[in-house]
Amino acid sequence: MQKNKYDVVVVGAGPAGSMAARFAAEKGISVLVLEKDRDVGYPVRCGEAVSRKGIEEFIPSDPKFIATTIDKFSFIAPDGTEVVIPLEEEGYILERRIFDYELAKTAAKAGAEIMTRAYVNGLLFDGDKVSGVKYEHQGEQKEISAEIVIAADGVESRVGRWAGLKTHIDFRDMESAVQITAANISVDPETCYFYFGEEFAPQGYFWIFPKDKNSANIGLGIGGDRNRKKSALTYLNNFMEKHYPGASVLTVIAGGVPCVPTLEKIVAPGIMLAGDAARQVNPLSGGGIASGMIGGSIAGTVAAESILNKNPDHIFEYEKRWNDRLGKRHRIFDRIKNGIYNFSDEQFNSIAHAAVKLPVEKRSLGNIFKTALVNKPALLVDVAKVFFTK
Amino acid sequence: MIEILPDKCDFCGCCVGVCPEDAIELKEAEIFIIEELCTNCAKCVWSCPIEVLVFNRNGVKKNAEK
C-alpha cells in the first residue's frame, strides 16, 4: 500500500534511478520510484554498449540482457582506413529493455516501491528545501512528501531546474543522435565499429554496434551546431542508402547526449541529481550506463546516510564522492574531447595511417589518443591520466 | 514562433535539455511548448535530431499540443 510520505523519492527508473533506489533501500529507509513511461526500460534510447566491468559492479552478467560480447573496436577514417583495436577488457551490447528491467528488480528486491506512468510535474517545498514532488498518475494530480528527492529524470530533466539547479546545457554541447536497429544485414558480432569524419558524423561519431551477426544498432551523434545545418537523421539516411540499402529497420530512436562535464552543482537542499540529469555521461564516449549507475549508487548511499544520521546537510557529500570517483575524470575526458572535436578529415586520416603502422599488440585506446594528440602536449598528460593509470 | 510536429516526434527530450527557459513540456508521448515561457530562441529547433521542431517565421499562433 502506497504511503503519502517516503524517506526518498526517486524520479526516473533508468539505470541511475534504479541504483539510487536500490542503494538507499538496502540501508533500510523507505523509497519510492516514479517512472513517467508505462514500462521500465522502454523505449530504449541508447547504443547499448558498455564494458563488462561497468555493469558487473552492480549486476552479474546474464545472457538474457547481453546481446553480444565485444572483443575489438574498429575505427574507420574518412578515407576508409580501418584501425582494429583489440580490447583489454571485453564489452557488451546490451538489451536495455531487459537490462533496465532487471536493475529495477534489484531495487524492488531491496525494498524500493516502483510506480510507472507517474509523471512528475512539480516540486513541493518547505521553505527553501525540497520536501516532495507533485505528479500526475492516471489522470489524477497527486503529491507525495519526501525527505530527499533524487532526480534521475534523464537528458530531459526539469526537476533539478525547479529546485534552482542549472541543468540546462548549451545546444552545441548536446550531441543530437539518431539510431536504428537494422536487421537483414551482415556484421561481425564481436566488433564495435566507429566511423569518423565529415561524411559520417561531424563533431561526433557514427557507430555500428552489433546485436548479433545479422542485426545491429546503427546510429550517430553530431554536435548541435552541425545538426543545425544538417540533421542527424539526414546523415543516417544517407549512410543506410549507401551501405545497407536492403536493411529492414526494426526500431528508430532519436536522442540527445549531454557531452559535458558533470554539472557544478548536483545537490540542493532536499534534492540530488543523478545520471543524465546530472550530466554524468562520459563526455568523450557519450557512454552513460555505467557512469549513471555509479552516480545513482553514490546518491542513494549518501541519501540513506543523511536520513539515518538525521543530517539533511550530509547530502552535499554526494558531490565530493562523485567528483572523486568519476567527476574529475570526466573533466579530463571533456578536455580530450575538445582537443579532437573539430578535427578535419585529413587529421583523422593521418591518425589512422599512423595507427595502422602500430603492431596490433600496441594498439590500445590510449595509444590511439596519444597519436591523435601528439601536437597537443598538455592533452597528452590528460591522455596519460585517464588511459594509462587506473 | 516555434512549432512541434507531434506526429513526427519521438519524445526523446533532446529539445527539453537545451531549452534555456524550461518552456517545453514532455510526457510519455505528448509534447508541447509552454508559450508564455518560450522566447523563440530556436535552440530546440537546431538540436532536434529528426527535424520535428520548426521555426515558423510568419508567427501564426498554433498550439502543437496533441
CATH class placement of the largest domain in chain A: Alpha Beta
Return the string of H and E elements of chain A: EHEEHEEHEEEEHEEEEHHEEEHHHHH
- N-to-C span of chain B: 17 Å
Rg over CA atoms of chain A: 21 Å
Proportion in β-strands of chain A: 25-35%
What is the rounded distance between the termini of chain A?
46 Å
Reading off the top of the CATH hierarchy, the class of chain B is best stated as Alpha Beta
Strand order, sheet with most strands of chain B = 1-4
SS content category of chain A: alpha/beta
| Uncertain ranges of chain B | 60-66
The average pLDDT value of chain A, as a whole number, equals 96
Rg on CA atoms of chain B, Å: 10 Å
The strand count of chain A comes to 16
In sequence order, what are the helices and strands of chain B, one letter per element?
Answer: EHEEHE
In terms of per-residue confidence, which ranges of chain A show pLDDT below 50 for 5 or more consecutive residues? none
Specify the helix fraction band of chain A. 25-40%
The portion of residues assigned to helices of chain B is: 10-25%
Short description, anyone?
With 390 residues, chain A is an alpha/beta fold.
